[in-house]
Amino acid sequence: MSDPLQDAGLDSSSSRIDGAPDAASCLTLPERLDTSAAFALKDLIEQAREKSGTDAPSLDASGVSYVGGLCLQLLLASGCTLVAPSEQMKEAYAIFGVSELLSEPLTSPEEQ
Question: For the residues of 32-77, what is the DSSP string, one character each?
Fold first, then answer.
């Protein structure tokens, strides 16, 4: 029997990225979050919650190139923190009118 998470392009393994919480609570999102990935994304978020012991595990969104409305709604409803959101992820949040929900590291005026 095939793994629905892998079939949808989701990886249930965790990885540590700079500035992120420990590997147990960081979930790497796939490149494409379209309607076909929604059920697997929901399952993956639930698994990450169980594994991390927190209601809001961190999600590594650095490799996301497409976000559909249904997956965006799941991400918003999950309350999870996005780590290193890609430009496409930032754009999707902006289009949906929820940019303020992205938690970004603060940058100094010299970096801007």
Answer: EE-GGGHHHHHHHHHHHHHHHTSSS-EEE-TT--EE-HHHHHHHHH
Q: Round to whole Å and give the CA distance between 20 and 109.
A: 23
Other C-beta atoms lying within 10 Å of the C-beta of residue 29? 28
Tokens of 19: 């500035």
Indicate the DSSP class of residue 14.
Answer: B
pTM: 0.70
pLDDT tens figures, 56-90? 888 889 999 999 999 999 999 998 888 899 999 99
Instruction: Say how far residue 92 (Cα) sits from the centre of its chain.
Output: 12
How far is it, in rounded angstroms, from Cα 9 to Cα 77?
21
